[in-house]
Design goal:
209 residues, disordered N terminus, Lysozyme, mainly alpha
């Protein structure tokens, strides 16, 4: 019997891009794995804690009209693709606006973050993996102790989860000197192995506008 991972990799490797839209119909099971707790030097811990603590409202700001128009075009196209997962327009808009805000704030590609969310939780706010990772970006609870007040329940809050996930992924990218393959593997706890990075990078293509 083929596993979910086998089906996913087969879709990515042997079908054209339009066919990989079937990834949006993935099962409700979260991807197994999770970040591994590692010692952090004080300067890194302080920087990450500061990045987590600054909860500004997720309202995108634009320097010019063209930038705002690009955002609105992105919102329209991406919202249409996400409709089956989040049918309510207001809920969908709030989610996408927050993903945009937190991705840009962390210096990450928005399509990459959406691809990671798709693979990790299939866009389920209350997803929990077999390893105990929580929420949209499947953040391990130890991060709330390392960087915050230890309240793991906040990982089911949309902006908090996206904030933690984006800050953690940025941290791993810096640790891996911008090697996305290794950073994604570290995020999933499978550093050096291909299935997870390949799945995220494949899903990323579905969200590029």
């Amino acid at each position: 019997m083929r596993t979910r991972r086998d089906i996913l990799l087969s879709a990515l490797g042997f079908k054209p891009l339009w066919a990989s839209l079937s990834l949006l119909q993935m099962s409700e099971q979260s991807w197994a794995g999770g970040q591994v707790e590692e010692p952090l030097v004080d300067s890194v811990r302080t920087a990450l804690s500061s990045a987590i603590a600054n909860h500004a409202p997720p309202v995108p700001e634009f320097s010019d009209t063209e930038s705002r128009l690009r955002y609105l075009r992105w919102m329209g196209a991406t919202s249409e693709r996400l409709k089956k997962k989040k049918p309510d327009w207001a809920t969908r808009q709030e989610f996408l606006q927050t993903v945009w805000y937190e991705s840009k704030r962390a210096g990450l590609d928005v399509a990459l973050v959406l691809g990671l969310i798709q693979v990790e939780s299939n866009f389920r706010k209350f997803a929990v993996s077999s390893a105990g990772a929580r929420g949209y970006m499947q953040v391990m609870p130890f991060w709330t102790r390392v960087l915050g007040d230890g309240d793991a329940g906040k990982l089911f809050h949309m902006q908090s989860n996206l904030r933690f996930g984006c800050v953690i992924l940025r941290h791993y990218l810096e640790r891996e000197r911008d090697d996305l393959f290794l950073a994604l593997g570290r995020y999933n706890g499978s550093r050096g192995r291909a299935p997870y990075p390949d799945a995220v990078l494949g899903a990323r293509r579905l969200w590029e506008v």
